[in-house]
Amino acid sequence: MKLEFIGPASILENGDVSYPAMLDGKPLKCTFSYEALQDLDVDGVETNALQLFKNHQLKLLSIAEQKILNGHAIEGAIHLFSHDLVLD
């Protein structure tokens, strides 16, 4: 399985962040819910979804990668929600 996150990040109409990837040469849409992004901002100071994503990009992509490797990519998409986060 070959996974490559290609970006760039963009905000969707519903406030979530999309980050394109390629999985075995096919497009894969990775979506991160705004609520999940907010959960990573423990001080609650940042409200811009794109900035929240950028602040935690490595952690978010790592979690997305694990979901993909565990077979949770369905119909060319993976969605990351608050319950997917493992907060330290």
UniProtKB/TrEMBL annotation:
<dbReference type="InterPro" id="IPR009962">
    <property type="entry name" value="DUF1488"/>
</dbReference>
<protein>
    <recommendedName>
        <fullName>DUF1488 domain-containing protein</fullName>
    </recommendedName>
</protein>
<dbReference type="Pfam" id="PF07369">
    <property type="entry name" value="DUF1488"/>
</dbReference>
<dbReference type="InterPro" id="IPR036692">
    <property type="entry name" value="Shew3726-like_sf"/>
</dbReference>
